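Reviewer 2 asked us to include a model.

Predict the structure of this chain.
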Amino acid sequence: MSWFIVININIVIVGAVPVIVVLTKADALEHVAIDQLRDMGLTMREALPMVNEVAAEVLSKLRARIELQLSRCKYPPKAYISTASKYSLSFFLG
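Predicted model (structure tokens):
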């Protein structure tokens, strides 16, 4: 799966306003994690307990790529926030 991000942060900002990046729908990475685990030969029953951990790793790698790209901007972000739906797999699976 490829992620295409189009961001223009090099806009003139008047005053001292920090740039904050919000990574939304982080729970969508659970499906990427399941695919990775299934590709490793695990059954769905075996994969589900590991989904959150693998999804966190995927998010970490994706965030690192985004941070590297945005660190070159004239006004680099001061903070990064990840959000997920309360109706993610972990909500249903407990």
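The longest strand covers residues 20-23. The beta strands are 20-23, 79-82. We have added this to the supplementary material.
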